[in-house]
């Protein structure tokens, strides 16, 4: 592959903060509820929709091979989009800042088991990309009749490598 190379990094709240929120039990405030029989962990992921409703669905994603050829990113002008895995395998998260010429250089992150993400509304991101196995996700995003998908195809693909890959 001759695309421009990007190496994915472990997902962190700080690294992902410009693009949305990391959903996991670590790094946020938590406190006991229900008389101590449960604990509430705050991820601070905000849902945000315009001209529609917030809906919850299940996505079943097939795994991708690496190094991955990233040719396209997308964004949703009418809603944030959250992906919470229903199994403990990692998945790849790709985001890019917006520039006057479209998305900038993508940033790639690998989740650790049990982490999810919420993309802010209108944030450039790669599609759902499991790494090792078919994976189900709870997805929280926009439901309505507005066109909610904008795609950007890179003139030259990016080559995404997982951390520790030798090639
Ligand atoms: N198309 C669709 O619902 N999924 C994408 O938005 C995605 O981010 O995977
Ligand atoms: Ni999306």
From TrEMBL:
It catalyses: (S)-ureidoglycolate = urea + glyoxylate. NCBIfam families: PRK13395.1. It comes from the Bacteria. Pfam families: Ureidogly_lyase. The keyword Lyase applies. This is Ureidoglycolate lyase. Homodimer. One of its GO terms (molecular function) is lyase activity. The keyword Lyase applies.
């Amino acid at each position: 592959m001759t695309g421009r190379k990007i190496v994915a990094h472990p997902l962190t709240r700080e690294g992902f903060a410009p693009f949305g929120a990391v959903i996991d039990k670590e790094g946020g405030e938590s406190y006991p509820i229900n008389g101590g029989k449960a604990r509430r962990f705050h991820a601070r992921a905000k849902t945000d929709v315009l001209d529609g409703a917030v809906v919850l669905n299940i996505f079943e994603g097939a795994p991708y091979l690496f190094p991955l050829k990233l040719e396209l990113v997308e964004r949703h002008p009418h809603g944030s989009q959250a992906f919470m895995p229903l199994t403990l395998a990692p998945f790849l998260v790709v985001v890019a800042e917006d520039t006057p010429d479209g998305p900038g250089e993508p940033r790639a992150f690998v989740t650790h088991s049990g982490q999810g993400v919420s993309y802010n509304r209108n944030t450039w991101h790669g599609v759902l990309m499991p790494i090792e196995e078919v994976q189900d996700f709870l997805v929280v995003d926009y439901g309505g009749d507005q066109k909610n998908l904008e795609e950007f195809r890179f003139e030259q693909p990016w080559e995404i490598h997982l951390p520790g890959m030798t090639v």
